[in-house]
TrEMBL record, chain A:
Residues 89-292 form the ABC transmembrane type-1 domain. One of its GO terms (cellular component) is plasma membrane. GO terms for biological process: peptide transport; protein transport; transmembrane transport. Belongs to the binding-protein-dependent transport system permease family. It comes from the Bacteria. InterPro entries: BP-dependent_transpt_permease (IPR050366), MetI-like (IPR000515), MetI-like_sf (IPR035906), OppC_N (IPR025966). PANTHER family: D,D-DIPEPTIDE TRANSPORT SYSTEM PERMEASE PROTEIN DDPC-RELATED, OLIGOPEPTIDE TRANSPORT SYSTEM PERMEASE PROTEIN APPC. The chain crosses the membrane at residues 25-46, 93-117, 124-146, 166-185, 224-250, 270-292. It comes from Aestuariispira insulae. The keyword Zinc-finger does not apply. It is found in: Cell membrane. PROSITE patterns: ABC_TM1. This is Peptide/nickel transport system permease protein.
Automatic annotation (TrEMBL), chain B:
This is Peptide/nickel transport system permease protein. The keyword Transferase does not apply. Pfam families: BPD_transp_1, BPD_transp_1_N. It comes from Aestuariispira insulae. InterPro entries: BPD_transp_1_N, MetI-like, MetI-like_sf.
UniProtKB/TrEMBL annotation, chain C:
This is Peptide/nickel transport system substrate-binding protein. It is found in: Periplasm. Pfam families: SBP_bac_5. Belongs to the bacterial solute-binding protein 5 family. One of its GO terms (biological process) is peptide transport. Gene3D superfamilies: Dipeptide-binding Protein, Domain 1, Dipeptide-binding Protein, Domain 3, Periplasmic binding protein-like II. GO terms for cellular component: ATP-binding cassette (ABC) transporter complex; outer membrane-bounded periplasmic space. Residues 94-446 form the Solute-binding protein family domain. The keyword Ubl conjugation does not apply. The lineage of its organism: Bacteria, Pseudomonadati, Pseudomonadota, Alphaproteobacteria, Rhodospirillales. Keywords: Signal, Transport. Transmembrane segments: none annotated. It comes from the Bacteria. It comes from Aestuariispira insulae.
Length: 305, 322, 551
């Protein structure tokens, strides 16, 4: 009978919540993110409830001020700003979350392999990570966003889909965004694989995949969660930058980024049109940043006060 | 040390080559050409003109051939002419490089000057009201959409208050003071967008140092607050800050496109963007070369600083993160 | 008390007077920076705009859309013998036109402008290796006969009723630029326009280039050698600010005095700005020859039916678009010829907004309304079309979303898919890869014959190496004949008859859905006088010597 070594794992639920709740701004951020997500999720329901059509342009009711029908007024095509914001939020949040999750997944796999196996896989993967970090991000995104999908051999059904710009952004961002997670996971794995409980598990004859999943992964989860949360905010910001360059999500699909970009010309005439999407991006990104910060405080034992 | 440097430089060289090839290849995958746009908007031009011009610029040849031609010439020091500007690539890039530095250096310096003391103090008074304010401010800077913020700054300071000019470029014959006046707004905007990152790192590093046993011992021994912060904490916290600054070179070099566009200040970001969309291969490649090299050099510099400032760390083990 | 008032009045007078005198400087904001200043490369509006002040074409269209001489003394004319039909040496039916250059005309360094410059220009232009934009124009010149220092005859190898003007002939200075043309391939890079753009010898307009801040601004000062009317402004600076929100902010903060109509804001941007700051500036909207329309892919079985095409046009409220989005400044287009054009046919059919009629036409064509609001044909196929345009062009994106909503109401399901301009024009449109509708604009000149856009031999395909601009695939022998008549039957009646019938046919067959004519919005200081917008590609700066400030 081998000695049982305890697996430190994640902090207990109670400990985590107590710690997290002390970070008041993070708590507020969490509430905000949940609220935004719910609003975005129920946008179609709200649309029905209000009896409006978010996509319908009304030329005779452009740039209208807020009213009982249109809570935040109408935009340059006469569409309801409030509903557009909710639909834009759906897209922006979705892009942020999916891209961040994909990046985290990719980064975790690379980091685990590099850290656990060491040797040449580690050398190769870490050099690759260096290379990706060295890429001039913004110019490269511009090139990638302008590449012809058909020349890359994508079938027309995908390349010509209305949502292609959405897939493209998610893919591009996850392809360059995995490096932080990979480095974090590798560093943690590197130290974990020398720990007693891992050595013991290996002595018990557990295979590498099992050790990775059961013993290493739970212990590297904290930095992954933190990094992913922070990435979501960054992605939403990046989408707005790409929209500014007309390389983001394409209309008629609304995103906060392209809404913000489209109202540039109404800055003097209807400034509130620019204020709303800008504010939504700002508030959401800052909320995700605080959430990440709070999670870090609560999850990282070294950062305990 | 020398061996480490040599190896890192060799690796960087390889990465540089791969990046350059990759971007050349990707640019080749971008369909169409600005020549097509010209035909569209000028009734005097015909599609035959477009086909002839494309052949003249070699755009009808396979991408590998073109890359090889470019590479062999570049290795001989001939970077060719920019197609968009009709001038030798370096003549186009040089003033823009200077422009980028004019914008970047004050931003980095200002950011350090702001981030170091505020980060230190925030860490010392961690979780107090001061810390919260600094936290909120630095997160706000990181989280604001750059385009939106830049326009807000222009509306506020140039249009409403009319204190400062709205664009970074002064009139053709302006003096030094006029140049400086025009730079205030873009530098301030970029600094606000940039300082948050430094501040976060400074605070985190200071916090970590403050938790070390020797700091507690020093405190217990009655070392004065100022001396503690400046001598012990600052020295240790500078390490990650230097790293993050070195690592941010790349993004400051080519990532300020938005600010350059809004303030009409032709720097590297705008130039690379224009050259990519204009199929100006010669210009784009050298732009990418510089941007990637800056990032790579920043990385090596960060590693070196780490090694120099903290000899306990083995150079090979140093990685960003954590 | 009186003397205080009087002194005050006097002081105000003096102060405003001095301010007045000093303000002989004009800063113009444009939204694009011209890559180079060479007149024959990289044609773009921003460049023509600046060159309009620093050089003068031999002839152009003026603000009334008529051919006028700027550098020549008289337009060629059959009656005066300065134009005549000839058979060229290569045996082609050609035309010979004679021009005389203004005897006073000199380059900025005082050297007279002569036929030597004409020959030099032709030499550079007709050499395919020098990479001039409109080589095709120079290639049509088979021979130039020099009569004396100022007079020359162009022998063109093609006849056309539009023979009088040669605005494409961009004179180059043989006395300074010739050394650089020894190697035609390198000329583009070595020319003085690149190496030394502030050299006065390159310019011969009321102004010359005095300072170039690459990517930022170009400063012009008076050209002392200019032989025409003395311009009022001492100095003009043209500043490029690409972001239009920043451009308007610069105007408000006083960093620039005006925004050029030719290369500045779009009409909807200017209107939005005017609503708030209408009192502070002078706004001029000039509609013109930029024709926004939707090309229909006639090979699409749905669009092959002319009833569907007509229904699509009747289903959209172009009047509302023109009124609501553009405050009527961008008038509805009923065809490709602008009403301001002398060859316009007011009697060609036009289609007003009539959703009922549109629905009837669709029913007739076999498209019946299904429960989900989208029409289907007998086979159960949806009435679904793809609408494409240039991504990032906010006006077009806005208009297409409005159109989508309007078509939805008559049961047509329109999908929007946009592409960056270079992809859209470089591949999708020019290689006819769009499946339904493509929205874009034609830039034409007055009396522009739709040779490349409507003739059946101009349908781009693999065999002709994608030449031609007849993207819809419209092919009708009568149209081909009409276009030839318009080009070659120069007698006024016959010519106009061909134009009339062409416009009638265009509006009957509807290979294209006409939308509206774009306007150029000029935002000027309230005291700027003398600027006359043209509405075509020859900019208002060609008459910059008339600009001045006056209370």
């Amino acid at each position: 009978m081998a000695v049982e070594y305890s697996n430190p794992g994640l902090p207990t639920h109670d400990g985590f919540w107590r710690q997290f709740a002390r970070h008041r701004l993070a708590l507020l951020a969490l509430a905000l993110v949940v609220l935004l997500a719910l609003l975005a999720l129920f946008a179609p329901a709200l649309e029905m409830l209000l009896g409006l059509d978010a996509g319908a342009a009304d030329l005779f009711n452009r740039l209208a001020p807020p009213s009982a029908d249109h809570w935040l007024g109408t935009d340059e095509a006469g569409r309801d700003v409030f509903l557009r914001l909710l639909y834009g939020g759906r897209v922006s949040l979705m892009v942020g979350i999916i891209a961040a999750l994909l990046a985290a997944l990719l980064g975790t796999m690379i980091g685990l392999i590099a850290g656990y196996f060491g040797g040449w896989p580690d050398g190769f993967l870490m050099r690759a990570t260096d290379a990706v970090i060295a890429l001039p991000l913004l110019p490269l995104l511009i090139v990638l966003a302008a590449v012809d999908p058909q020349k890359l051999g994508l079938p027309d059904s995908i390349a010509q889909s209305e949502l292609f710009s959405l897939y493209r952004i998610i893919l591009i961002i996850s392809l360059v965004g995995w490096t932080t997670v990979a480095r974090l996971v590798r560093a943690e794995t590197l130290s974990l694989r020398r720990r007693e409980f891992v050595i013991a598990a290996r002595a018990q004859g557990l295979g590498s995949p099992a050790i990775l999943c059961r013993h290493i992964l739970p212990n590297v989860a904290s930095p992954i969660v933190v990094a992913t949360t922070l990435t979501i905010g960054n992605v939403i910001l990046l989408e707005s930058v790409l929209s500014f360059l007309a390389l983001g999500i394409q209309p008629p699909t609304a995103s906060w980024g392209n809404m913000l970009n489209n109202v540039q010309d109404y800055l003097w005439d209807a400034p509130m049109l620019a204020v709303w999407p800008g504010l939504m991006i700002f508030v959401t990104v800052i909320a995700f940043n605080f959430l990440g910060d709070g999670l870090q405080d609560a999850l990282d034992p070294r950062a305990r006060r | 040390m020398a061996a480490f440097l040599a190896r890192r430089l060799a690796q960087s060289g390889l990465i540089l080559f791969i990046v350059i090839f990759l971007t050349y290849w990707l640019m080749g995958l971008m369909p169409g050409d600005p020549i097509d746009l010209m035909v569209q908007s000028n009734p005097d031009l015909t599609p035959a003109d477009a086909a002839r011009l494309k052949a003249l610029y070699g755009l009808d040849q396979p991408i590998i051939t073109r890359f090889w031609n470019w590479l062999t010439q570049a290795l001989q020091g001939d970077f060719g002419y920019s197609r968009l500007f009709g001038q030798p690539v370096w003549e186009v890039l040089w003033p823009r490089l200077v422009n980028t530095l004019i914008l970047m250096l004050p931003v980095v310096l200002l950011s350090i000057v702001i981030a170091v003391p505020l980060g230190l103090l925030a860490a010392r008074k961690a979780y107090g009201w001061f810390d919260y304010t600094v936290n909120l401010a630095s997160f706000a800077g990181i989280s604001v959409p750059p385009f939106w913020f830049a326009i807000l700054m222009i509306i506020g300071f140039a249009v409403t208050l009319n204190w400062l000019p709205a664009s970074a470029a002064p009139p053709g014959d302006a003096g030094l003071m006029d140049h400086l006046r025009h730079l205030i707004l873009p530098v301030a905007t970029l600094t606000i967008l940039n300082v948050g990152t430094y501040l976060r790192f400074m605070r985190a590093a200071s916090l970590q140092t403050l938790r070390q046993d020797y700091v507690r011992t020093a405190l217990a021994k009655g070392v004065s607050e100022t001396r503690l912060l400046t001598h012990h904490v600052l020295r240790n916290a500078l390490l990650p800050l230097v790293t993050i600054i070195a690592l941010s070179f790349g993004s400051l070099f080519s990532g300020t496109l938005i600010i350059e566009t809004i303030f009409a200040w032709p720097g590297m970001g705008k130039t690379i963007y224009d050259s990519v969309l204009g199929n100006d291969y010669n210009l784009a490649m050298v732009g990418f070369l510089l941007a990637t090299a800056t990032t790579l050099l920043g990385n090596i510099l960060a590693d070196l600083c780490y090694g120099l400032l903290d000899p306990r760390i083995e150079l090979e083990e140093v990685k960003l993160g954590g | 008390m009186r003397w205080i008032q009087l002194t005050c009045l006097l002081l105000t007078f003096i102060i405003s007077g001095t301010a007045w005198a000093e303000n002989k400087r004009l800063v113009i904001g444009i939204s694009q920076y011209p890559g180079s200043l060479h007149p024959a490369y990289d044609s773009m509006m921003a460049k023509s705009y600046i060159l309009g002040m620093t050089r003068r074409p031999i002839s152009v269209y003026d603000a009334n859309w008529e051919d006028v001489c700027l550098l020549c003394t008289e337009l060629p004319d059959f009656d005066k013998g300065t134009a005549k039909y000839v058979v060229t040496e290569s045996g082609k039916e050609g035309i010979a036109v004679t021009y005389s250059l203004d005897p006073k005309a000199v380059w900025g360094d005082g050297t007279p402008i002569t036929t030597r410059d004409v020959m030099f220009t032709w030499e550079v232009g007709a050499n395919p290796e020098s990479g001039i934009d409109n080589f095709e124009f120079y290639r049509r010149i088979e021979k130039i006969e020099v009569i004396d220092d100022k007079t020359f005859t162009l022998v063109m190898n093609r006849r056309s009723c539009d023979y009088q003007g040669i605005p494409g002939f961009t004179l180059l200075p043989s006395h300074v630029d010739r050394p650089y043309s020894d190697d035609p391939r390198e000329y583009q890079n070595r020319t003085l326009y690149e190496k030394d753009p502030t050299n006065p010898a390159l310019w011969y307009g009321p102004y010359r280039v005095s300072n170039v801040q690459n990517g930022q601004s170009i400063t012009l000062v008076r050209n002392e050698r200019w032989w025409g009317k003395k311009p009022w402004f001492d100095e003009i600076e043209i500043r490029a600010i690409e972001n239009t929100a920043a451009l308007t902010a610069n105007l408000l903060s006083g960093d620039i005095d005006m925004i050029a109509g030719e290369s500045g804001l779009t009409t909807d941007q200017a209107l939005a700005f005017e609503r708030r700051h209408g009192d502070d500036f002078q706004f001029i909207y000039k509609q013109g020859l930029v024709y926004e329309h939707i090309d229909l892919m006639l090979e699409n079985p749905i669009l092959a039916d002319v009833r569907v095409r007509r229904a699509l046009l009747q289903g959209i409220d172009r009047d509302a678009i023109s009124q609501q989005l553009f405050a009527g400044k961008q008038p509805v287009a009923h065809g490709s010829v602008n009403p301001l054009d002398s060859v316009y046919n007011p009697d060609a059919p036009r289609y007003d907004f009539d959703p009922e009629a549109a629905s009837r036409l669709l029913e007739e064509a076999g498209w019946t309304l299904a429960s989900d609001g989208v029409r289907r044909n007998a086979e159960g196929e949806k009435l679904q079309l793809e609408l494409m345009t240039t991504a990032g062009n906010k006006t077009r994106e806005l208009v297409e979303q409005v159109l989508q909503s309007q078509w939805k109401k008559i049961g047509v399901d329109v999908r929007i898919r946009n592409e960056p301009a270079r992809v859209f024009f470089g591949e999708t449109v020019s290689k006819r890869k769009f499946t339904g509708m493509a929205m874009f604009a034609w830039f034409s000149s007055p009396k522009h014959i739709p040779l490349t856009t409507l003739k059946s031999d101009q349908i781009p395909n693999e065999e002709n190496n994608w030449a031609g601009q007849n993207y819809t695939g419209y092919a009708k022998p009568e149209m081909d004949q009409l276009i030839e008549d318009m080009d070659l039957k120069c007698e006024a009646d016959q010519n106009q008859a061909a134009w009339d019938r062409m416009q009638e046919l265009y509006a009957t067959d509807l290979p294209v859905l006409p939308l509206y004519y774009r306007a150029n919005p000029y935002i000027l200081p309230k005291d700027l006088k003398g600027l006359v917008p043209t509405g075509h590609q020859y900019p208002s700066t060609l008459w910059v010597e008339n600009w001045h400030r006056a209370p």
